[in-house]
Amino acid sequence: MILPVILSGGAGTRLWPMSRELYPKQLLPLASDKTMLQETIFRLAGLDDLAAPLIVCNEAHRFMVAEQVRQLGQEPAGIILEPCGRNTAPAVALAALNARQNNEDPLLLVLPADHLIADVEEFQRVVALATEQAAEGKLITFGIVPTAPETGYGYIRADRTRPLSETNDSLAYPVAQFVEKPNLETAEQYLTSGDYYWNSGMFMFRASRYLEELSRFRPDILAACEQAMGSVKADLDFMRLEEDDFAACPSDSIDYAVMEKTDQALVFPLAAGWNDIGAWSALWDVKPQDDQGNVVIGDVLTKDTDNCYLQASNRLVATVGVKDLVVVETADAVLVAERDQVQNVKAIVEQLKEQDRGEALLHRRVNRPWGAYEGIDMGERHQVKRITVTPGASLSLQKHHHRAEHWIVVKGTAEVTCGEKVLTLTENQSTYIPLGEVHRLANPGCIPLEIIEVQSGSYLGEDDIVRLEDVYGREPK
User: Fold this and answer.
1) Are 271 and 285 in contact (CB under 8 A)?
2) What 3-state DSSP class applies to 186?
3) Is there a contact between 107 and 131 (Cβ–Cβ < 8 Å)?
């Protein structure tokens, strides 16, 4: 049995302002109408003896991940929540240990959630070829056949003097070396030699074999993960780790922890239109371009504009007399960069974090398990939000120490708990929640509920929530 293990823990800072820390690129529809996480799951359909996917994700993303899997009509094998990032070696160890706890030893097909693969048929063909060697105890990595001297990727050097086998013109080779991102001259030499492949970060091996090799080379990581999995708690559909246990785990990648050290690693070449969508320039490469070489998304007007990536989400964007630019507009930020400088966008995110600005973390529209809210206006001692509650959903039972709230229903039906009273409000009706009053908002109807919330008070931060009850299992604040 093949158990897909989908790693969905990245932040995607180079794709700011679309990708944010609490809404990262794998949860965005960047390359198609599906999100990148959904694309990763979708391309598995058709593989033989395939189990439901096991997803390892950041705890803060859990409800968005669960909802996006649900939208595909699938039930995951589980969703393991990482309370903090510890890189890929511990993440995969958690998946392998979960299989061991269930007395199973599947082939783990480890896939990052934020990659694009254009040729799904070829991807599945090579994965199928790799299953035999993985079942026999080999640790498989998939090396991308390079098409250019790329300096942004790590490389895998194959020992091409010892091809393992040949099936349908596909060779498997022992791994001779993992190498870091090279400079341009070195990358050109790699491309010319034919011995090097881009490191895709995709792997396949038996759960037990990975744990054996991890025990040999990084027993400290394995011990920490065993401790964390030993205290795992079921939380709705999630597996929640104790933060202190997992935070004690060393941070390391599969490459460093295991694959560079084992003598049982094989590389299967893969030429399937792979792209890690690591920057805006990658999207310019893969998206359809107009006659002037522009990728245009949204409400965009151009004049004498060439070879640009232009994306508008909320407003008209117009360009005149420019070339080789990336312009990305969102509700609260605009990025303008030369196309060959977009790798440095992460420096802007670092500045935002240093200044403690919210644009690094969230969009103006913030998703919640019950729906979403969007900031409309903010001033001294007041804030206005548009709140959308999905049918049958409800917010937590809560109160605030520093603000009062006015709610106006603009669509749907609201059930409002305010102290001892329970009110039903419909369109154009409103209510007032005094400071300190226990309250809850719910949608008992069959269409989305939309309300306008006007907050007033001395402090309006999201952390002014005393959560008393919550159907989604969120920790009290």
Assistant:
1) no
2) helix
3) yes
The pLDDT assigned to 477 comes to 53
3-state secondary structure of 380: coil
Q: d(Cα 424, Cα 439) in Å, to the nearest integer?
A: 13
* pLDDT score for 10: 82
CB 150 within 8 A of CB 279: no
Of the CA atoms within 13 Å of residue 123, those in its CB half-sphere come to: 23
Among the listed residues 396, 408, 407, the one whose alpha carbon sits nearest the alpha carbon of residue 370: 396
Rounded Cα distance, 422 and 4, in Å: 46
Kind of pairing, strands 449-457 and 403-411? antiparallel
Query: Six-digit token pair at 318?
Result: 């117009």
Question: Nearest Cα to 44, choosing from 128, 104, 133?
Answer: 128
Q: What are the DSSP E strand ranges found in 305-370?
A: 309-312, 317-320, 325-329, 334-338, 365-368
Rg value, the chain, Cα? 25
What integer is the mean pLDDT of 207-212?
98
CA 429 → CA 301, 310, 425, distances in Å? Answer: 41, 42, 6
Segment 84-111, tens digit of pLDDT: 999 999 999 999 999 999 999 999 999 9
At 282 the pLDDT is: 94
- Distance set, CA 324 to CA 187, 285, 294, 295, 304 (Å): 24, 12, 9, 11, 12
* Cβ(173)–Cβ(265) below 8 Å: no
Identify the pLDDT of residue 168. Answer: 46
Q: Give the C-alpha separation, 414 to 426, whole Å.
A: 6
Q: What is the pLDDT of residue 144?
A: 97
Q: Tens digits of per-residue pLDDT, 144-199?
A: 999 999 988 999 999 988 777 654 445 799 999 999 999 999 999 999 999 999 99
Phi, psi angle pair for 71, to nearest 5°:
-60, -25
Q: What is the pTM of this model?
A: 0.89
Helix, strand, coil distribution of the chain in percent, nearest 5 = 25, 35, 40
